[in-house]
Amino acid sequence: MTFLTERIYLILWVFVLIPVVIYWRRGLAGYSRWRSGLILLLRCGMVVLLTVAMVGPVVTWKNMSKFVVHVLDVSGSIRSSRSFWDLEDAAMFPPADPESRDRAVYLPYARTVGKTSDTASELALDSSDASATDLSAVLAAATALAPEDHVPEVVLYTDGTYNIGSEPRSVTRSVPVKVVHRHPAGKNGHPETWLARLETPPSACEGEVVGMDAFVQTTDAIGELKLTLARNGETLETQTLVFEKPGTRGVRFQAPVTPKPGTLQTDWTVTIAPSEAVDQQRENNVLSAVTRIVPHQRVLLVEREAMLGEKLVRALKKEYMEVECCLPEKIPTQLSDLQHYGLVILSNIPASRVPTDSMLALREFVTKYGGGLMVLGGNQAFTSGGYHLTPVEDILPVVCVEDTKREREGVGLVLVVDRSESMKAGNAIGLAKEAVKRALEVLGPQDQVGVLVYADTSGWVVPMCVMTETNKSQAYENIDKLKAISVTNMAPAMEKAYYALMESSAPRKHIIVMTDGVSNPDDFGALAQRIHDSGITISTIALGDEAEPNVLADIASIGQGNAYLCTDPASMPQIFAAETASAARLGVMEGQAPVRQISSIPGFLNFDFTKMPPLLGYVQTRAKPGSRTIFESAAGDPLLVWWKQGRGKVIAFTSGMESHWIETWSRGWDDFSRFWGRLVTHAMRNPGRDMRVNVTFDDRWMNVTLGVPYGVTLKEEPFLQVNEEETRLVNVAPGLYAGRRQVDFTQKYDVAVRGVASTGPFTWKATTVPTFTSEYRPDRQKDARPALEKIQEETKAAEASLFVWQTLRFWRYFLLAGILVWFMEIGFRRAK
Predict the structure, then answer these.
(1) How many Å apart are CA 782 and CA 167, to the nearest integer?
(2) Among 157, 142, 74, CA closest to 109
(3) Is the alpha carbon torsion for 658, 662, 666, 667 positive or negative?
(4) H or E segment to which residue 23 belongs
(5) What angle do the packed helices 428-441 and 469-480 form, to 10 degrees?
(6) Which of 191, 332, 508, 718 lies 20 to 30 angstroms, CA to CA, from 595?
(7) Measuring CA to CA, which residue among 236, 287, 292 is closest to residue 769?
(8) Mean of the pLDDT values across residues 168-183?
(9) Is residue 737 a contact partner of residue 706, using CB atoms and an 8 Å limit?
């Protein structure tokens, strides 16, 4: 114990007060000697007491009493594990000795610091948010709790991890910190296994088969682990992963989207159930997700004649799809019109009936705007439809050529070409010569061809001959010499063609008649009927506005051929080539064709293609490099091929829906409608996928980024809407917008990103579901053990001193005594 004074210089006040005492003594003349002496003594005592009070006497001594703060981690990661603190264990949390002046309090913490308690068993464990751990904040709070008259000490009970706040550090070196560790799950202690993430599409159409990727992470070689997928609460599938070493592994589930009763969404849940030996926490064994159900995009089915595509329409309507039909001449030529559809289907359409502008628009619709295109075969599609070297073939996953090494039936063909004076206009005669050459190019040595030109008279430019290379060369020379002359007289030329084909030995015979004007009158109907009765088919081409399309259409109808109305002479070569390919049935393979599966697409999960019946025909093509063949024939020809072209998808099915080729499928295969629904969905354009939106969570924040595709610009900053509350996304990089919102992991959120792009307005929607925070993810927790060891080392010096100086100030007591003596002095003076 030590006696000290705080203001020793005030002792000088004694000398100042001596005259006052003397003056007071003179005032005592009227009292008796003993009373005046007592009063003087009291006055001197009061002066001394007041003087001592002003000097400030202090007594100090060493105080060994402790104030221990037990800081307990009650965050979710440790409370849910087997290493949680036993709050009833007195040995772990020793109470303060009641006979000493030691004190102890208990302070819980997790995301925030809780309320102190005098006993561990009375801790309010819910006072802290268990979704995170902040070590830095609780250390600062604990070191500030100890009163000045006690030896401070902090005992930190922790698993050595944190996931928010800064790295823990020593707030003051005068407070010793002791650390009691519990091994965190998955870190140098018990192994831990958890679902790292579940990736599902935010939106899809009803019935669409979607892929979902689930990833599991483990800190130990746990062997086999089963993952279970549930849809709307019903178990769908179980898959097994094998972990021969620690790490992350994933598995893909595929399932059709089905609405939850009373909603327009599908709830997915993936669950794992590791054994307790390899899993400390159950909170991270379940992940959920939501897929919003959006309407199907409309399908535009292009058919040669009305109702020919009814079989496909019925199949797609069974799969909840809206189908609109049109003829090939009505295919939109403007991109703005095509964008009303998610997919365009060309069903056995010859290239000659598709306007060039429509072909170009389809190509841009697929490559730049992500549209889908499906081309179905038949005897007038692909190779036999004259698609070789067209804009559509550019984006097809197949090349429309036949295998010339394979035998096919030859065709007897006569090209009847108008060379009248009117053919000089617009260089129609030159285009006609080019068209004839294009027709001859596609034929081979098994074919017999003649070229007959007419005006007022007719004659052979190329007499009937086999299409050898030598004959082709000679035919090209003769065609180049053609000139336009005189008037139009078509009937004699048709008769000559008829007689020539009657003498031909070809198994199939065909006439193509082209004119640009009005022929001399004749009974064309009777002539066409006579030709048809002889087994010869006729197709007609009306060039320009002055031709007689009705007459030519009647001829083609009687002759069981095609009638073309060619308003643009530049398209004539394509028409001739396509009609010739169709007449020659280039690449057409008829007969039973067993189907062999080569690969698959996500929508074909759970299909048993081994039971698929054979097809009865298809068109020969050749798969392009980079394409993906799903089905092929026994001869190795592609039957179903697809690829990504630009931003869209293109599918080629070389068999036909209109003909008898697919009767075995439509009548003998139970999965027929489901097959077409899955195939169409695979190729379908989904506007919501044009913008790349990513939603992630960081602590209590939802981070949303929007990636704008190349070539697309936004007219203004887009909006982020979360549960009806809107905010703008900020442009953070070229083509990238970002924003964030504070959220609560225990709630669902409807998220929407909307804006106006150069391609039109867009809206992206998703629904988030509650998930476990980083508190239950060992891979997201930061290791604080090195920092805590450093804090222990730094505060060891304070632990060695284990006492504080206790101070007692006496001036209050001297002042009180001085006042008391003053009252006594007054009393003695006034007493009688």
Answers:
(1) 9
(2) 74
(3) positive
(4) helix 13-26
(5) 180
(6) 508
(7) 287
(8) 79
(9) yes
- Output Rg (C-alpha) for the chain, integer angstroms: 48
**CA-angle at 763, arms to 758 and 765, nearest 5°:** 150
The helix/strand count (H/E) of the chain reads as 19, 43
Q: How many CA atoms lie within 13 A of 524 on its CB side?
A: 24
Q: Indicate the pairing of strand 536-543 with strand 508-515.
A: parallel
Amino acid at 445: P
Whether the pLDDT of residue 686 is over 60: the answer is yes
Contact yes or no for 618/377 (Cβ under 8 A):
yes
CB 785 within 8 A of CB 283: no
Query: With contact defined as beta carbons under 8 Å apart, do 112 and 73 qualify?
Result: no
Instruction: Let me know the angle formed at the C-alpha of 682 by 291 and 299, rounded to the nearest 5 degrees.
Output: 100
pLDDT tens-digit readout, 195-229:
998 988 888 888 778 888 999 999 888 888 999 99
| CA pseudo-torsion sign 127, 132, 135, 136 | negative
Q: Which residue reads 């603190």 in tokens?
A: 85
- Please state the length of the chain: 832
Contact 397, 650 (CB under 8 A): yes
The three-state DSSP-derived secondary structure of 242-259 is: EECCCEEEEEEEEEECCC
User: Is there a contact between 412 and 548 (Cβ–Cβ < 8 Å)?
Assistant: no
Tokens of 206: 């009803």
Q: In the numeric block, which tokens belong to residue 713?
A: 């610009």
